[in-house]
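Entry for phenylalanine complex. Fields follow.
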Amino acid sequence: MDNISNVQKSFDSEKSKIKNLNFLNEIKVKYLGKSGEVSLLMKNMKNISPQDRPAFGKKVNEIRDYIESNLAKIETELAEKEKKAKLKKEKIDVTIPVKINKGSLHPITTVKNEITEIFTGLGFEVLEGPEVETDYYNFQMLNIPKDHPARDMQDTFYFSDNLLLRTHTSPMQARTMEVKKPPIRMVCPGKVYRADDDATHSPIFNQIEGLVIDKKITLCDLKGILDEFVKIFFNKNTKTRFRPSYFPFTEPSVEVDASCSECGGKGCKVCKGTGWIEILGAGMVNPKVLDNAGIDSKKYSGFAFGLGIDRMAMIKYKINDLRLMYENDIRFLKQF
Ligand code: PHE
């Protein structure tokens, strides 16, 4: 009987120290657990004389009920208290004004949209193609067989011998000619990749391909379209100039410059004193490419061009290091 009242005394003195649910659980185990104080009392039963056992058992049950109900009461109180504290701590004042930084389009995206819209305005449809391309479409269909020296300038990232990150948007010329019948008038904007990395070359950049195929298309049509384009993109006084060039998939091929929109052709920092800025490569689609894609080169002709979107953005925003475009520094991006 003394043991029983000792358990009660020690519980009473510990109960006032219960200040959180963790400690409450410890106390619960200590008194009511499998080898807790109350169980120990029960185990003692065998040492009690038979006539005293009922009274002893009753007492033990009472003390167990006492501890249980006390702990239950403390538990509800504590749970309520902890809930209140949590609610107080996590309270959100929905009336505090918040400043939300709105996102905006990346300068390259803006320029890409602008260029694409100019061409849709001129009657071109917009197509997109895969960035992971096959050697077949990226090179072979464009008259660049394996071991062709033109591959040197277009080294890229290979997944396997035949699978690579496209080096230009030109594979979309071949893909389009394979599935569409002339007349074709399409532009294809998109990301392209090369093993290049310096102030004016990034391993990832953007081009927009243009392709027109119909009867009697000539270099004059190319000139006409590009003249119109530069007038809309830069300003109405902008002119183009064609310089002879070489691409395996166009014949003849040209490099196209636009007169410098900054100085009007007099020569300045933007055009490095020349009055002209190179903007794209172009030419008449090589008859071999037409035939490769199943278009009769005796009946149809066409022109193609590949415009560097990043270059256009650099000129437009007077940015001299292309890498800034890809670092995604918020201080840079905020300016657009
Ligand atoms: N694909 C060429 C390049 O990336 C550009 C080009 C496109 C040239 C279409 C001619 C015709 O350099």
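NOTE: The mean pLDDT is 93.
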